[in-house]
Amino acid sequence: MVTLKPADLAREHGISTQAVRNYERDGFLPPADRTPSGYRIYTDLHAAALRAFLALVPAYGHATAGRIMNAVNEGRLDSALTLVDRGHAQLLRDRETLGAVRNAVGHLTTGAPVPAHEPARTIGELARRLDVTPATLRKWEEAGILTPARNPATGYRIYRPGDVRDAELAHLLRRGGYLLDHIAGVVRQIRDAGGTEGLADALRAWQGKLTAQGVAMLDAAAHLGRYLRLVPTDRP
Fold first, then answer.
1. In the chain, fewer beta carbons within 10 Å around the N or the C end?
2. What is the pTM of this model?
3. CB of 66 within 8 A of CB of 28?
4. Over the stretch 63-111, which tens digit does the pLDDT of each residue have?
């Protein structure tokens, strides 16, 4: 294999040599051999690992990208692929949620009622549906995003179809990086079935993010596949 210096890897991506060393330290790159004087010796294996990691970041986020590379470099390929699968599943859920929100907005702007055939949900049921904690739902309620009714017999919160729609929207926009105050304003627009331009802008921006993430996942898969072909099969 061709031998490379840390600067060679760093130069390709416009990062510092210290970043390359940090990525090796964190297990995102396989351990490098050393010269007798202690300098790191990188190879095309390390170059491929760095390309894979940096491609994984925009696709899955820095933390998950790191866990994927850790798993690969520790010989836990199935664990790495499970993380990849979860990322694709979340992207699909985001796309489906975006479609559901657009459908809900369509009902409101045309004057059609929100479908009410679904039963009311408890806070635990809604939390499980969204894969968040009940505390998160209570925080959204404090921010004015959710306005659940109370069961007259027990006093517990109940979430009707409109509340579920608002929670789905909040979950979607939170993953898009929107602050709670902004989300509360968007939800109020939906409830009032009035000026939805702000919501339309938010949904268009999130659609763009989902598209960019999907393309990033394709790019990451290509780089990860090339790296896997270089990883020795006898590694632990």
1. C
2. 0.70
3. yes
4. 999 999 999 999 999 999 999 999 999 999 888 878 767 765 665 445 4
